[in-house]
Amino acid sequence: MIVTKNPGGWNIFFHRSHALLAFKIGFKMSESLWPLPEYRLDGLSAITDHDNGQPKWNKSDNLTKAGAPLDFRQPSPMHLKYVKSLISECLHKSAFMTLMVSMHCCSIYKNQSSKEVVKFLRELEELSETIGKHLNLKKEDINECYRIVRFCDELSLTLCQGDLPKMGRKIQVEPLPGMEENFISKDEDGIITLDNWCFDQSEFKLSAEFYTAKKLKYISDHELISEIPLGKPMFEEFYFKKL
User: Fold this and answer.
1) Measuring CA to CA, which residue among 56, 52, 114 is closest to residue 88?
2) Quick one: which of 82, 159, 174, 240 could link to 151 by a disulfide (CB 3.0–4.6 Å)?
3) Who wins on pLDDT, 77 or 4?
């Protein structure tokens, strides 16, 4: 979950909602940015499915020790069983999608020291190399495609976390293929823009679903999820415009 504090409690974006927002960002991007246009849809599928390995609600896995909703940024071990299941599901859908998701897993879990995780990440690297060779793809093109996946993921997280500074101050985002750097900002009217515009449309709106929780402390995941009216979300809207 992506959890932020609000005056009355917590805002909660589920990871699958964040992934859907990342997909929407990728879908709006210019197709010409993809080094391998024939794999664009597979890459977009990797963006929307990359967080499907998150564990299901169970006991108190989604609560802090103090009983608050657990934000994903707080240190936690890789849930190896769920990530292995995710890779298996990807393999039954698309080799290129598996390649992108495997690279993403290796990137986000690279600092974990568990022997099982280290072994699994090594297996993912070998799988990625095998897929790349089988599809006869250049490593440079593969890496550039992953930069798009990474850009969409990080921009979505930034938006869901509410991390964009106000009054036009800029922060750096993941640069896309052909770019050395890129910056994003939001003006006093809430309009979001990038120094290097990468979208087909000159202006558009995106939204992401979230829920609110009011208690400061929960006894179990069940108590937290029972308070969340699934199917009746609130919406955070994001307005993009090329300046």
Assistant:
1) 52
2) 174
3) 4
